[in-house]
What does this fold into?
Amino acid sequence: MRVERVKRERRDLASGENTDLRLLDGLVRKYSGKKGIMIPVLQETQSIYGFLPKEAFKKLSVELQLNLSDMYGVATFYAQFRLAPVGKYIIKVCHGTACHVQNAGTITDALEEALKVTDGGTTEDDLFTLESVACLGCCSLAPVMMIRDDTYGKLTGKEAVRVIKEIRLKEKELPI
Amino acid sequence: MGKTKVIVGLGSCGIAAGAGKVYEKIRALKEAEALDIVLSKTSCAGMCYREPLVEIIDESGSYLYGEITEDKAVELLNNHIVNDNPVKEYIVCTDLYDTPDKKFFDGQVKIALRNCGMIDPENIDEYEDRGGYEAIKKIISGGMKPQEIIKVVMESGLRGRGGGGFLTGLKWKFTYNSKSAEKYVICNADEGDPGAFMDRSLLEGDPHSVVEGMIIAALAVEATAGVIYCRAEYPLALKRLDIAIRQARGKGYLGKDAGGKKDFGFDISIKEGAGAFVCGEETALIASVEGKRGMPGRRPPFPAASGLWKRPTNINNVETFANIPWIMNNGAKEYAKYGTENSRGTKVFALAGKIRHGGLVEVPMGITINDIVFKLGGGIPSDKSFKAVQLGGPSGGCIPSWLSDTRVDYESVNATGAIMGSGGMVVMDESTCMVDIARFFLDFTRKESCGKCTFCRIGTMRMLEILNRITDGGGEEGDIQKLEELAEQIKDSSLCGLGQTAPNPVLTTIRYFRDEYEAHIHQKKCPAKSCKKLLTYTVNDHSCTGCTVCARNCPVDAIRGERKQVHVIDQDLCIRCGICFTKCKFEAVSVS
It folds into this structure.
């Protein structure tokens, strides 16, 4: 139920106190006066800030004459939009059918345990965000996870945790 | 014969397997050693299980090498290119002799995928060299009228490849018959089924065929603009589509006087989907293109009468469009030669799951499931037995092994309770729990339900709760009947395809694997040994050698025992991950 997304994310709705709203000016010029712009506007806003800051909603609503409630409705309907900042590394664990039958669940379980977050959450140090995705499309490598542009295939829970540890080490954080 | 060609397969699956690094390595070596070769790229040839693939074409023939790493690439260049000595052990296929992998291609008929893995998808010239955009030239120079184009498509018997199976020609006719100054053609590339990647591979491998198909549709229905609605999760497909559209514009196939036809203005824009499965449904897709929440609307009016911005709109799937130029070039009769009486032509399937040769296959309709799984797919890996295939994703169902001589055509597949769907085919073996599969799909549709219809929104939740209970060992008498009852109500009371088909995975598994449901409910047992809460892992005293492998691999330190002593699993700590079971070399861990 998409209603669930609203419930969860309302609590997280982040205010963008330090948001540089001038970054949106180009966007406003590009889309001003056009129709069917809602989704591309939100997509490009997200690619600027990494999420959709509260202040950006307000500015875009005024300058592009978009209804604030419509914007919020659209932002909470689609899985792509985030209302809170994400970690430096987004871990996408594939839960497509092929990965599911090859035990993708154990990968998520192991990562949840190692990172001490639940699915969809961000670690306290803002380094990792753990996500489940529908299908990354490399079914023959199942089970698969993707971190930034790197894909890791034929995983086990232990192997997945090892990858995370390596990234942590590289980031010169305390190993888990 | 010109220079030796080295072609690297750079589809998403190849890149995931490391093809990007292989390409870079070859490029660097080519420059460093001034090798006299042509290096180019192509996309997925369908052979995902052998990625990364590198093809070398020289004077003696073509050699397709599989599972190439950076090191192996160096070896290939040194031996094959420098010393003219092909590396036999890496050869997957060659036109010089038969190889075991050739079976993967035998029996396939490539129409929609005709160029995938054959051309550089970012180069329009290579598409044109293989007959690309000829169909448009033929239609325009021959002065073909819209009705004539529609007649050809109708006679080919092509049905919508997105899953619905509606006659494409008829759909076009409806849109043609709706009179309006503005009309739209939309390509539905919002491939959302988990476990399906046909459209992605096609868009990455041959975007021009989809663009050309859309232009032909526009000529037939007299459309003024086109939209491709593609998932944002497919960045490579989006990039290649964008390149293809620019190139087509550059050559005059799109834009003002498109294809050289006077007063025919047609251009295509791309809309990125933002991640909602329900947007694969026509009316929800249109709402999404208009910038709204992707909620399905009532039909009629159908999009052919009132669609995008309330104008007549023709929506087809990626694979449907990719077939069109071939049909125009080769004729309806040639296409209708393949397939069965009511399901003409070919269908692309994404073969995945417990299968040896997973990948993308295109087969004539009417082939049996057996042939796909065992002849093309090479059967089940390891010594497990084949249990079922899942067709049609969350809207489809499971076809059990004893019905595997079912022919793959719309009617025969529907008769089993599954649906043809868009082409995801997931193979399952004896270790896959059918109750868990039903639970998996229902969890998916529940999350993706837009929430408009009560039965879809709440009914799927109630069904999921029952299934969760069953797989957790809390199944009760009467649960199966409750599931069946809810399923019928959801099917009857939902507006769109998502709700109407959401119960299918549950209904087909109850129909064919009722005994598994009953074992979960009554004996609290999972016959496939997959539902964790119903399992107990124990170490057998007589087979354990005390090698400590299980204890060292246990993620929660639930296994105790000294070296060379029998080990014991603490059932309170055990999380039933099964790692000890898979790691033990002496089969000393048993599951019950």
